[in-house]
């Protein structure tokens, strides 16, 4: 499910208009690009924050105070929110202060970025590290009085004289500004950073790798319409757009900024490391993270490529933006209070968080982890091995379903991508598909199990009570429940189920009511808890007692393990 909002952060003249036109709702139904919301010249536009702020101040003059800014901004977002679409405001570096509180430090992370981090909102950081190009682009836009051109004919003035001393001050200021912004954004997840220099491919389309990175970060369908609406104002070569090119070239030579004069012949700043030929070298990073949830420590692996960290849940846990803390609290309560030698079913296990925590908290429990995606299943198995939980977690490369059959699982991204949010019911064009074996959960209770459920660890599972079942299968939870009716009638386990919208929540509520379960909504999260109706009152009382010691939301801490980080060339 797409998040309610994200941010596009950049400096002026860095291509936000072009990128925004690709992410406009006309091109992608899951995005709602708002444009530059803090532009003082946009007052009157319904997408401009100050248009709404004036109304709020008319309601109550105290809304003009800095302390009211958070409430004002949330009202602004709510006014524009549309079901299923992610609001994408364009915020320039020099507008990030617009919502700061009283006594905010001038070098502190702006309130807006703190809010985005707390909400787990994705951020696109669009840079333009060639500050000479930024400077020239600003000169030409000012001369033409055209800031976003959709027709090259609208741009009459194609070259300008550069004030060299002013340029040098501009470059130094921009370098310090960028370093500050990068420090503020450090650790934010999900974060996509791309540079204007390589944002578009040779055909003028948003580069596929950047389009995929954005779609991953926002949890949307792939971005297939990648042609921007705007055209570049400056000529392709700086020799054409700078009238005193030789003077500028001489001023920048023998300085750290000399590379900028090459313009589009060198589309990005010199990399921190290079190959023997001096070309840019991208890295892929393998690392292990230590995560502690309510004192239960586990280790999980992730891979970070130029388009981001592949296990986005792990990244969120490390950075403090994980959004299922209350659900995890309920799960740990169920695990810690399960009968001796019980088992749990982790359906849609992804990389194994719930299973890993289960057997860390209780050595006598067994977890069956169902994960249909072959790439994600491999990571699940690796995480089991990292923690030496091999005998206690049974990874099942299967899809749980209402009947036994072969299904097609669409993958939104490439072969090597872990993709949370993938669903058998996914709509839209996939990157590729995979056939998966689907089975009802009731099959695990059969005296003679089929060959795809015959792991040695499953010997004697008929003697293990099923204490809890977690189902996170992106919209097909009712179909999975249909295949678990025998488990429901004989074992009466607790269920934690995800729902993607109110309609899905209602379907789950109807199902559980029909089998004698009471539903407990989990506040502010997209999960619900279902308990046998005759156990409801005792469960509520016992959880309240447990929560006095442990809290109604888990405490999570995480860090990359020292010396586990390995880099290689991509």
UniProtKB/TrEMBL annotation:
UniProt keyword Amino-acid biosynthesis, yes or no: no
InterPro entries reported for this sequence: FkbM_mtfrase, P-loop_NTPase, SAM-dependent_MTase, SAM-dependent_MTases_sf
Domain Methyltransferase FkbM: 346-503
GO molecular function, one term: methyltransferase activity
UniProtKB keywords: Methyltransferase, Transferase
Family matches, as Pfam families: Methyltransf_21
Protein's GO biological process: methylation
Protein name: FkbM family methyltransferase
